[in-house]
């Protein structure tokens, strides 16, 4: 069995001074200068200051703070810790630690107006949605609520099941504080 050939370094991202490459057929001695180094790129304004200048000021993904607020605006489940359990806008139960997986308790942070159609990654355009529904929705805007509900993964989860999931993920079970008007003393 032959060993793998050594991998080439990407000269365009090299931090060493510009090098020449023989044999490319250029008029001056057959040598070509490689592309700009990182230092040259900083001078050209691609990385102003010492921070990286993000070429996309409107990110596709939601920032962490928006995800936190989006979770907060999702419907709470009575008797369950709201930091761990919520309902998406279709009524599906979702678990906070299950993000992006295909299961019935998994969720995504969905762009209400799809990013590909001009939707921004802002709180106003964010909703918690069961992952399977979000994936089937894609970038469609003309899909009805009834059709989205049909695409939901039906998941009947009893309180004991939720306790077990919570115990496995967090090592304990927490209940939501009871907010009824009466307290027994």
SSE-based structural type: alpha+beta
What does the radius of gyration come to?
26 Å
Low-confidence stretches: 10-27, 32-47
Tell me the span between the first and last alpha carbons: 79 Å
Q: What coarse outline follows from CA principal-axis ratios?
A: globular
Which H/E pattern describes the elements?
EEHHEEEEEHHH
State the share of residues found in helices, binned by percent. 10-25%
Overall pLDDT, averaged?
Answer: 78
Oligomer: single chain
> Which percent range describes the beta-strand content?
5-15%
- Helix segment tally: 5
Number of extended strands: 7
| Main beta-sheet strand count, sense and barrel state | 3 strands, antiparallel
Task: Going across the biggest sheet, name each strand in turn.
Answer: 3-4-5
Considering the chains and any ligands shown, give keywords for the structure.
185 residues; alpha+beta; 3-stranded antiparallel beta sheet; two-stranded antiparallel ribbon; 5 helices; 23% helix; globular
Outline of the structure:
The protein has helices at 38-43, 64-73, 131-137, 145-151, 159-170, and strands at 20-22, 31-33, 75-76, 85-87, 93-95, 107-111, 126-130. The chain is an alpha+beta fold and 185 residues long. The model is unreliable at 10-27 and 32-47 (pLDDT under 50).
């Amino acid at each position: 069995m032959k060993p793998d050939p050594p991998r080439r370094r990407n000269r365009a991202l090299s931090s060493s001074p510009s090098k020449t490459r023989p044999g490319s057929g250029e008029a001056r001695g057959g040598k070509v200068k490689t592309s700009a180094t990182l230092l040259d790129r900083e001078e050209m304004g691609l990385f102003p200051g010492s921070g990286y200048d993000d070429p996309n000021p409107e990110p596709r993904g939601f920032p962490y703070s928006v995800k936190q607020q989006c979770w907060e605006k999702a419907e709470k489940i009575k008797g369950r810790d709201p930091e761990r359990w919520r309902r998406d806008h279709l009524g599906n139960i979702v678990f906070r630690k299950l993000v992006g997986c295909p299961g019935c308790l998994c969720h995504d942070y969905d762009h209400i107006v799809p990013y590909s159609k001009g939707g921004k990654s802002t709180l106003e355009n964010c909703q918690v949605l069961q992952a399977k529904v979000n994936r089937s929705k894609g970038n469609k805007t003309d899909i009805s609520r009834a059709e989205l509900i049909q695409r939901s993964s039906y998941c009947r989860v009893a309180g004991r099941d939720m306790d077990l999931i919570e115990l496995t993920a967090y090592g304990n079970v927490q209940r939501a504080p009871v907010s009824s008007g009466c307290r027994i003393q």
